[in-house]
């Protein structure tokens, strides 16, 4: 039985599909960022809009920043 | 193959605007973005340093090395 090659989905393609959607980013530290994805680059630095920052230990939600943020891809886990 | 080059465009657009720069250590800097480069090295003017409460004020130029930068944000509103 011949198995047809499934079309390979590159990780960056998946991120590309998310442009315009609200996404949830988990950082290496106990921090999560939720925002709308505007764009990204080959290093997966991301430009997000309407961002809320969550930290696990202190009071909970920390800062809401409007406009845009450039998130350094080095610290992104998931 | 660049995907819309959004981070680079973003960097060109925000020069001169008030920004918030957060470092890995969690320290917050608010100031006017004088210039920056592709490594996220930043020069800020009239920056203030926040660690929970307000710590120090700096006037003039502050230079931040890019490897410490968690994010750069333009600011409008804060909760």
From TrEMBL, chain A:
Keywords: Acetylation, mRNA processing, mRNA splicing, Nucleus, Ribonucleoprotein, RNA-binding, Spliceosome. GO terms for molecular function: RNA binding. Its main location: nucleus. One of its GO terms (cellular component) is spliceosomal complex. Residues 10-78 form the Sm domain. It is found in: Nucleus. Pfam families: LSM. The keyword Iron does not apply. PANTHER family: U6 SNRNA-ASSOCIATED PROTEIN, U6 SNRNA-ASSOCIATED SM-LIKE PROTEIN LSM5. Belongs to the snRNP Sm proteins family. This is U6 snRNA-associated Sm-like protein LSm5.
UniProtKB/TrEMBL annotation, chain B:
Gene3D superfamilies: 2.30.30.100. GO terms for molecular function: RNA binding. It comes from the Eukaryota. SMART domains: Sm. The keyword tRNA processing applies. Keywords: Cytoplasm, mRNA processing, mRNA splicing, Nucleus, Ribonucleoprotein, RNA-binding, rRNA processing, Spliceosome, tRNA processing. GO terms for cellular component: Lsm2-8 complex; nucleolus; P-body; sno(s)RNA-containing ribonucleoprotein complex; spliceosomal complex; U4/U6 x U5 tri-snRNP complex; U6 snRNP. Signal peptide: none annotated. It is found in: Cytoplasm; Nucleus. Residues 6-78 form the Sm domain. One of its GO terms (biological process) is maturation of SSU-rRNA. Component of the precatalytic spliceosome (spliceosome B complex). Component of the U4/U6-U5 tri-snRNP complex, a building block of the precatalytic spliceosome (spliceosome B complex). The U4/U6-U5 tri-snRNP complex is composed of the U4, U6 and U5 snRNAs and at least PRPF3, PRPF4, PRPF6, PRPF8, PRPF31, SNRNP200, TXNL4A, SNRNP40, SNRPB, SNRPD1, SNRPD2, SNRPD3, SNRPE, SNRPF, SNRPG, DDX23, CD2BP2, PPIH, SNU13, EFTUD2, SART1 and USP39, plus LSM2, LSM3, LSM4, LSM5, LSM6, LSM7 and LSM8. Plays a role in pre-mRNA splicing as component of the U4/U6-U5 tri-snRNP complex that is involved in spliceosome assembly, and as component of the precatalytic spliceosome (spliceosome B complex). The heptameric LSM2-8 complex binds specifically to the 3'-terminal U-tract of U6 snRNA. Component of LSm protein complexes, which are involved in RNA processing and may function in a chaperone-like manner, facilitating the efficient association of RNA processing factors with their substrates. Belongs to the snRNP Sm proteins family. SmF/LSm6 subfamily. This is U6 snRNA-associated Sm-like protein LSm6.
């Amino acid at each position: 039985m011949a198995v047809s090659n499934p079309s390979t989905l590159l990780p960056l393609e998946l991120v590309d599909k998310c442009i315009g959607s609200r996404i949830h980013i988990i950082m290496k530290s106990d921090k999560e960022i939720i925002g709308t994805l505007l764009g990204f680059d080959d290093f997966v630095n991301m430009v997000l809009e309407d961002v809320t920052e969550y930290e696990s230990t202190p009071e909970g939600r920390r800062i809401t920043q409007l406009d845009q943020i450039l998130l350094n891809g080095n610290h992104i886990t998931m | 193959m660049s995907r819309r080059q959004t981070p680079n465009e973003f960097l060109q657009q925000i020069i001169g605007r008030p920004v918030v720069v957060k470092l890995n250590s969690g320290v917050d800097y608010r100031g006017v973005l004088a210039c920056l480069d592709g490594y996220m090295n930043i020069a800020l003017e009239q920056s203030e340093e926040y660690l929970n409460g307000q710590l120090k004020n700096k006037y003039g130029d502050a230079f931040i090395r890019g490897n410490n930068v968690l994010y750069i944000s333009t600011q409008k509103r804060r909760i």
